[in-house]
Write a structure and sequence with these properties.
Layout: E1 2-6, H1 13-20, E2 29-33, H2 38-44, H3 52-67, E3 70-73, H4 76-84, E4 92-95, E5 118-122, H5 131-144, E6 151-155
Parallel strand pairs: 1-2, 2-3, 3-4, 5-6
Helix pairs in contact: 1-3
Length: about 170
């Protein structure tokens, strides 16, 4: 059997610990998918560790990563970050980028001008996800092409993690 878990909050820690202690899952291969551990979020968002639950989640993530047969990451960046933060890593690490088509959906000749009517920011509306860079880019486009009529759409939740999406009319650039 092969069992996949993600690292976030360590949902596989008890199965992995049982195997490590010889209590079960002795013939099971565990694959942990790495995306972004809690401490990476805290550091990247410049947040304090202000809750004991954060320490518990960090430990569970570290154990899950350490005890995996395979750690699969979409980038070498995150594996390097773990290494720099002294996580114990398994021997088998696989870098598997998120799959994207290598073929463009529309083939145009070089120099072809394609009209753009909408630009979309897709992601949580926080600085770490590139929101300010996106807003500066929109401001630059507006400055360089003042007659351009273009719609800007924001698809993502507000930084307070509420279920209410941020109203783009509240943003001024």
């Amino acid at each position: 059997d092969v069992v996949h878990f993600h690292e976030w909050n360590g949902p596989g820690v008890f199965c992995l610990s049982a195997r490590r202690l010889g209590l079960g899952f002795l013939n099971t291969i565990f694959v942990v998918g790495l995306h972004s551990p809690l401490m990476w979020h805290k550091v990247s968002s410049m947040e304090f560790i202000d809750n004991p639950d954060d320490l518990e989640a960090d430990l569970m993530e570290r154990i899950s990563i350490r005890d995996a047969h395979y750690l699969v990451s979409p980038s070498s960046y995150m594996v390097q970050w773990l290494h720099e933060k002294r996580y114990l890593l398994p021997a088998n690490i696989v870098i598997q980028p998120d799959l994207l088509s290598s073929e463009p959906s529309v083939v145009n000749q070089p120099g072809t001008i394609i009209p753009v009517h909408e630009i979309v920011f897709f992601g949580r509306l926080i600085v770490r996800k590139g929101l300010l860079l996106f807003l500066k880019a929109i401001e630059k486009v507006q400055h360089e092409f003042p007659d351009l009529e273009m719609e800007v759409t924001f698809l993502g939740k507000d930084q307070d993690n509420s279920d209410e999406p941020l109203d783009p009319r509240d943003l001024s650039i």
